[in-house]
Amino acid sequence: MVGLIVAGLALTAGAGLLEKLVRGLRRQHDAGLAVGMYSISALGFVQVAITLWVLFNANLAVTETTHDAVIMVGLAYVLLHGGLGAILTLLQGLRVGYGYVGAHAPFEPVVIAQWWRYSVVTFWIIVGSLAVLPRVIGG
Asked: Distance (Å, rounded) from C-alpha 129 to C-alpha 21?
């Protein structure tokens, strides 16, 4: 569970940094935008790596118990969204470097920020459910 918390913190930090960059773009400030996008992407890949590590070390019997199958599906879902967020942000960094995105065209990072918000909320709901529900329903 500690690994998932660290993964969630990396994801949340990336989303927070992206929100800061988007606010700057709205004020026509794009200094450090590419580096910021690459840093955010790296945080996304950290979340993916840690979640994968947790998943592979969990020894889940997904074909034997529904509990383990639900855990697998939940973690796969957050992996998919975290991975896509990291890749999309990496591509945004490249687009900033090529001059397609910046203070003159600040709209694409807003879409990426929405993806990251969704990923953060989904991550914490799934991890919270995995932690709380077995205690509530007696599993």
From this structure: 31
Which residue has tokens 């591509």?
91
Render pLDDT for 59-114 as a digit per residue (tens, 0 to 9): 888 889 888 898 899 999 999 999 999 999 999 999 999 999 888 888 889 999 99
Cα–Cα distance measured from residue 15 to residue 117, given in angstroms and rounded to the nearest whole number: 6
Distance CA 31, CA 24 (A): 9
DSSP character string of 13-64: HHHHHHHHHHHHHHTT--TTHHHHHHHHHHHHHHHHHHHHHHHHHS---TTT
CA 43/CA 15 separation, integer angstroms = 9
Whole-angstrom distance, CA of residue 116 vs CA of residue 110: 10
Q: What domains can be seen in the chain, in order of their start residue? A: 2-137 (1.20.120.80)
Half-sphere exposure for 66 (CA within 13 Å, toward CB): 2
Region of residue 51 (left: phi > 0; alpha: psi -120 to 50; beta: else): alpha
The tokens for 96 are 């900033």
